[in-house]
Amino acid sequence: MNKLKFNYTSLSFLPILVCxxxxxxxxxxxxxxxxxxxxxxxxxxxNPKIDNEIIITVIKRLNETILIGFFxxxxxxxxxxxxGIISSNIFYKIINIPNFFYRIIxxxxxxxxxxxxxxxxxxxxxxxxxxxxxxxxxxxIPYIAVNSKVFAEQLETIDYKNFESINQINAPxxxxxxxLIWNPIINTFKNFGLYRLExxxxxTVILGLFGIGGIGTSIFLSFQTLNFRELWTYLWSLxxxxxxxxxxxxxxxxxxxxxxxxxxxxxxFFITILFSFSYxxxxxxxxxxxxxxxxxxxxxxxxxxxxxDFLKLILETIILSLLSTGIAISLPPLVIGIFNNNxxxxxxxxxxFLLRLIPTPVILLTLLTFNNPSLSLAALTLGLHNAGIxxxxxxxxxDSQDKRNYIAMKSLGISNKTSWLLGxxxxxxKSYLAYCAYRSDIIIRETAIVxxxxxxxxxxxxxxxxxxxxxxxxxxxxxxxxxxxIVGELINGKIxxxxx
Amino acid sequence: xxxxxxxxxxxxxxxxxxxxxxxxNLKINSGExxxxxxKSGSGKTTLISVLNGTIKPTQGKVKLFNESFEExxxxxxxKITTIWQDLRLIEDLSxxxxxxxxxxxxxxxxFAFKNLLNISSFKKAHKYMKLCRLHNSIYDKKIGKLSGGxxxxxxxxxxxxxxxxxxxxxxxxxxxxPKLITTIxxxxxxxxxxxxxxxxxxxxxxxxxxxxxxxxxxxxxxIRDGKIFFNIKRNNLKKIHLEKIY
Lengths: 500, 246
Known about the structure:
The structure holds two protein chains of two kinds.
Chain A: H1 8-13, H2 19-28, H3 35-44, H4 52-86, H5 89-95, H6 99-114, H7 117-128, H8 132-156, H9 160-169, H10 173-209, H11 215-224, H12 228-251, H13 259-285, H14 297-300, H15 307-338, H16 342-357, H17 360-367, H18 375-399, H19 404-411, H20 416-454, H21 457-467, H22 471-499
Helix pairs in contact in A: 2-18, 4-8, 4-10, 4-11, 4-13, 5-10, 6-8, 6-22, 7-8, 7-21, 8-10, 9-10, 10-11, 10-12, 11-12, 15-18, 15-20, 15-21, 16-18, 17-18, 17-20, 18-20, 19-20, 20-21, 20-22, 21-22
Chain B: E1 4-15, E2 18-29, E3 33-37, H1 44-51, E4 59-64, E5 67-68, H2 74-77, E6 80-83, H3 95-100, H4 109-117, H5 123-131, H6 148-160, E7 166-170, H7 178-189, E8 203-208, E9 219-224, E10 227-233, H8 239-245
């Protein structure tokens, strides 16, 4: 008997097996109590509420969202680049500082990155109270660390020979450094900036669900009052904002040969740094630390969390991450492969856009209308939202791919689905899996959001501990979260390296 | 008077347990034009990398102006310039920006910044690009858009603009047509051109493959398997020498 051999194509579909246990639990948990609500939710998508009052609210809320999203993006992309430089090995090679510092900085950035912005938001809200700037700071903290990783990875790709060449000219160290890193930094900003702006807006919306402000807060309030028509007005306006921001960003040409534009970008760069520092100092010295009496309370507060319960929560979080990742990896190629015709493609693209657009807590609350809260439901929510993101990437790659193999296979009489699988997808499978490895890092972090709403995993425990100001529990949960995320990042890093 | 500018004392270089250079002793005097011959993989590039300080030898000492290379400061080290076999140009920068990179050693951080923003002066860069017979239509073109010969000349212009006392060149005539080879060879080896427009490096060590390019050189060094087989005046070079290294 032949041994079963795995290749990248089959590995892309294999994780769909998670649907077996997931489906079993979901079917067992079905209830029809909220089916009518679900139906109403769907119908409202085609009939959003449009009147003067709501338009004024939309404009006001979108303004807040844009402000929080844009400023957190600007600050996090600039500081991300700075931290990316000082956490890349090229910096230490040129400046001649021991690699020891580089490892310390990377370690701290990994810890900061491992905690989701919602968690940072909830913690900061507990300490400082609800505040507009909390949203910006909560997004900036993990985003700076995430962006720094991307910038650092790009800087690692600098050809060592170029480094030797510039080094041999014996220029001042910072001149050599700037000359070598300039273009990788600009290119990363060009290729990655728009995506991060979109992420920033999404994070602002999610933080809004937790009361920070902006359109997220309106979405949550209209969901709570079951006003679905209003909810869809907010969602569609958010969709327009994301599409428009993408179009505007694409129009801006980051042409470094244009002197005026270059000077403008440099000015923005330095003003942002100066403003961020001054604001940070203002924030520190002008806050009352409402609920956070003193650091010592962190050690005084007791923890009621039993070891067994704690381990169970960790296990739940890991299972939640694995199940969601399975869906996010396999669902897009499976659906695109099965419904492989032009009209279906348009429908899948719209559906994927909606999955990306609707914040995960809203997806979860909607699914709760016909299913009891469970780990599977949380996993399905997170999986579907991330499948929306992975499918976007897959569509982009497939659309730009050379289709000669696919056409040749079809001309041989091979079926449409098989031709798609072998002639198109098989060539993308490796890079697709590499991206999914990166995506699974994010999924681990996002378990915090669905955990809070869906009563599963460490996310739920964190919310509980924060609500009761049990700082010791908060610390333990955060350490556990970071540990899972760091281990996950290490494993995914290995997988990604073996795939690229 | 001792006019040795570069000296290798008992240099050995190992890479992954392979001996790339084996106990090499070499003295290069001021003003000498030396051709370095040897087949591919004989150690020519490694020898050049040791001479310019890019590779630290496993054993032995490199001296520049009678001082240990490691003890020299940045300004002193910048008296050597190198033309790499693989050119090592920055692909995302334009041809003139790449040539201006050669001026980084004598300028401050602000110059590097202006060069990247394209707002620095390219007067000197253009002068050397012109000497290398580069047409002004390619000055602002990105390296990726240039032909092999154009890239080669940009790399040469970047080295010449440094106006260093010593030039090390690793097969600098690749990708060039015969007419250009003569021009570039004159630029590399002659002190001052006919119109007294440039100050060329005084000392040159050039790794070569083509024997017909040996005129204008004072000395010839033959290298094989990381060992120097001969180090003689060009006029004394005979077939028997070449048979030892090829």
